[in-house]
User: Which sequence fits this backbone?
């Protein structure tokens, strides 16, 4: 059965959104005009990928204070960019944002969706969202929320992402009729607040026209994708301190934690020495760190030595003062915060000498 015209089907969304919209620092007051600051839209869209609105707000405000224009971000050094992003996770977004700002500072904003999609880090969704929210282009932004709402509304069987081409052709007439920025945000808001995994159809402005609701099939549409079980790595996270300095890995150019300083880690399975703690050791209860494709069961340890030793290959000594200013990922920040908490934490943990032996540090390197 052909889908009903999008402009008619989605008509109740726009007035509903005008009634429920929250004031967010990146939102334009006038949803009928192009946004006064497209850069603010770009920053917010990249921050909102994978991160909740409430978390993003203070980061966004600090970021715009620190890097108020594409040019300011383009000329900023990478460490300060990572530092400003610290705690938001998925640091690739910060690097993409800087790279996109560099292009915009040099050439100005692209004139169409294809140009936006060529900016570093902007996939089809983000490019379309920036097109609609910043420039009022009728570019359909389909993220997980939009796919879920539209799958239920139109009773799309199977994975709605497989109908992305059809949905992108179907949506523009509604975007033109009700305003690209307003309707795009309305769809996002409905998915985020009402048509969630368990939908609240009783307070949905589209309930009288939603096929999945009418047929009582909202539980099965869209089908939930099965995730492969994730491997969990078991690690010691090590703060090795000597003479007021700590050993850290400098940032790698690529990979999950690119651009970030890291504590050394040790696979806990390679260590079987479990003698009691010493006065030179602090240990804290561990936690599970979850990444997109990886989980780590992390046990933090603090080892203190009387004298520093030559930094092993790939590691650098940094002072306590420098440590506070370096960009670290969430896992590593957590150990930095623990180090700042006073008091002994003598939990059962491996013998420090055994740990260093496994790390490959000899007695002469550690000063005895
Ligand atoms: S009626 Fe229910 S299932 Fe349909 S769009 Fe609204 S909240 Fe989602």
Assistant:
């Amino acid at each position: 059965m052909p889908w009903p015209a999008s402009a008619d089907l989605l008509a109740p969304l726009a007035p509903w959104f005008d009634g429920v919209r929250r004031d967010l620092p990146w939102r334009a007051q006038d949803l009928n005009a192009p946004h006064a600051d497209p850069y603010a839209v770009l920053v917010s869209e990249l921050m909102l990928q994978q991160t909740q609105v409430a978390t993003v707000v203070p980061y966004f405000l600090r970021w715009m204070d620190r890097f108020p224009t594409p040019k300011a971000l383009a000329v900023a050094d990478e460490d300060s960019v990572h530092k400003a992003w610290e705690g938001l996770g998925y640091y690739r977004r910060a690097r993409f944002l800087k790279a996109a700002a560099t292009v915009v500072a040099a050439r100005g904003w692209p004139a169409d969706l294809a140009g936006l999609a060529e900016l570093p880090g902007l996939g089809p969704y983000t490019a379309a969202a920036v097109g609609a929210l910043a420039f009022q282009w009728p570019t359909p932004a389909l993220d997980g929320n939009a796919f879920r709402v539209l799958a239920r509304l139109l009773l799309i069987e199977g994975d709605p992402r497989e109908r992305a081409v059809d949905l992108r052709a179907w949506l523009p007439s509604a975007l033109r009729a009700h305003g690209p920025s307003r309707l795009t945000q309305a769809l996002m808001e409905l998915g985020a607040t009402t048509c969630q995994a368990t939908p609240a159809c009783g307070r949905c402005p589209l309930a009288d026209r939603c096929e999945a609701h009418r047929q009582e099939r909202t539980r099965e549409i869209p089908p939930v994708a099965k995730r492969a079980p994730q491997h969990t790595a078991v690690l010691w996270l090590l703060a090795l301190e000597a003479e007021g300095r700590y050993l850290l890995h400098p940032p790698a150019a690529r990979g999950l934690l690119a651009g970030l300083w890291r504590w050394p880690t040790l696979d806990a399975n390679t260590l079987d020495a479990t003698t009691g703690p010493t006065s030179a050791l602090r240990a804290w209860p561990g936690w599970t760190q979850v990444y997109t494709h990886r989980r780590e069961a992390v046990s933090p340890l603090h080892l203190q030595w009387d004298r520093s030793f030559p930094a092993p290959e790939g590691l650098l000594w940094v002072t306590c003062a420098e440590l506070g200013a370096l960009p670290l990922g969430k896992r590593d920040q957590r150990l930095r915060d623990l180090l700042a908490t006073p008091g002994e934490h003598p939990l059962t943990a491996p013998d420090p000498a055994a740990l260093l032996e496994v790390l490959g540090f000899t007695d002469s390197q550690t000063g005895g």
The chain has two domains: 6-214, 232-359. The chain is about 40% helix and 10% strand. Residues 13 and 19 are 10 Å apart (CA to CA).
